[in-house]
Amino acid sequence: MVAVTILRRARRQQYQAVYSQHIYCTAVIDPVTLDTNETVDVDVTGVVGAAIGDIVEVVQPYDLTEVMFQAYVSAADVITLTLFGPDTGDINLGSGTWKFHVKRIDSANFAVNG
Predict the structure, then answer these.
(1) CA–CA dist 97, 105 (Å, integer)
(2) Domains of the chain (ranges plus CATH)?
(3) All residues at 6 or more sequence positions from 36 whose CB lies less than 8 Å from its CB, including other chains
(4) What is the per-residue pLDDT for 110?
(5) CA 46 and chain centroid, separation
(6) 59, β-bridge pairs
(7) What pLDDT, in 10s, does the model give residues 22-69?
């Protein structure tokens, strides 16, 4: 389990016509060593208000030149960070504070044209 710190929850900000909710949080993550072509999922729990379908932006704590990553909401209040090491060799990522911005698109602003 990864400890999460909720930095700020806001309902309206810039782009308020597009997004209805913003959640900012950090998590200290110490991923395992990535073997060649290995994928590792890290669940970040306790992100209160996050829901499947929300958009997740990530700021990594260090250079990830040799690593591909993505984050998504995998369940209510849970972000899953996926790390992939495509390089030919082990990649040892140290502990670091990852930053997440979860935002929800306001579906009321999207009309279906018939």
Answers:
(1) 26
(2) 4-109 (2.70.40)
(3) 85, 86, 87, 88, 89, 90
(4) 64
(5) 13
(6) 99
(7) 899 999 999 888 988 999 999 999 999 999 999 999 999 998 888 999
57-94 residues labelled b (16+ CB within 10 A) or e (exposed): eeebeeeeeebebebbbbeeebbbbebebeeeeebebe
Q: How far apart are CA 89 and CA 35, in angstroms?
A: 6
Tokens standing for 97? Answer: 């504070």
Q: Are the CB atoms for 82 and 69 separated by under 8 Å?
A: yes
Structure tokens at 37: 């072509």
Distance CA 66, CA 60 (A): 13
**Is residue 52 exposed (0-12), middle (13-18) or buried (19+ Cβ within 10 Å)?**
exposed
pTM for the whole thing?
0.81
